[in-house]
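Translate sequence into structure tokens.
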Amino acid sequence: MLKIIPSADKAALDRLLKRRQVRLDSAEAVVEPIIEAVRKRGDRALIEYARKFDGLDRPALRVPVEELQAAHRELSAELKRALEIASGRIRRFAELQKPREWSKAAGRGSKLGQIVRPLASVAAYVPGGRYPLPSTLMMTVIPAQAAGVRTISVASPRPTSVTLGTAGFLGVSHLFHMGGAQAIAAFAFGTESVPRAERIVGPGNIYVAAAKKLLAGTVGIDFIAGPTEILLIAAKGATKKDARSLAADMLAQAEHDVDASAVVLTTSKRLAEWIAAEVARQLETLPTRSVATKAIDRNSAVIVVESIDEAMEISNRFAPEHLSIPDASWLDKVENAGSVFVGSWSPEAAGDYASGPNHVLPTGGAATLRGGLSVLDYVKIISVQELNEQGLRRLAPAITALARAEGLEAHARSIEVRLDE
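Result follows.
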């Protein structure tokens, strides 16, 4: 049953916020020996784990490109068209995100700028557990392609024909039938058949998250993702029709996982009651209700707030993965969110598939630190500086004074030796 909580109930509000914290301690203990086995034994360990956990029934981990292309040919015309539309919008958005190179004069004798270079290799983890996620394949591979990454690898446990067909559509050449901590370790170290990646991206279960945490530093990662979440702020004067949409958006999030969280903030107790009734009604016919019901009961609520300002304060403290706001005038108040959905015609499900922005987003409060996966995760921005003699002479007094203040005499002399000559 969906809870209705007054914002004055600070204890209940705190419990709702703290519930999202990801506990990886026990998972780390499980994955540490798996990581070590892959580091030491490479493909032999990977294949053993893939046969045990991922249903591998082929002699090698890598799925042949011909099989991916054949799987694409077998997709329905409707699904092929959907892939074309969604991938086109994702690619255009990634292209718009790409940082630009520039070079500008910065005073007499000085030129500054930046160049942009792609990572040499990246790996994408595409979950294959309760639901196949070809959308995540697009969200992780397309920005890498837009960035110009040369080697793009994908790991997916128990990949379905739709996942394989999507990989064929995208032109993926390195797709591996493997999952879990062992896949993360393979990309971190590299094995006989799996290329080492400079960065691993994409969501996964708690064991994938634990492996990413333990191997961060050995390999770059995007972020450690926890259970998915959405926070919706209802407009003043919302109606019963709005309650239906809000309830549907809550359930769209809740069906992901029993640990998912869906929260609505409203100033109206009546709207809160309408939403609770709608959630109960819609659950009756929802095929995924066994999962969604648990997420609603355990981790979700409608919070009745005193004012819009209080709603935004709670939202920014929550730092939700997905944030839905009534209209664009609220954007100035948004400080922390993975991705923002503006207005009743912008449901979160549109962002999951075809709007264009990435759906791999920070969870568990990580949106206080960064936004979602983007083309920036696949490139390096390298600064460039060029001084002539005049430019160095102008900066020399500041450089040598700072160097000697830090006790770094050779730094100062490296400037003076040029000017003395």
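Note: The chain has a mean pLDDT of 95.
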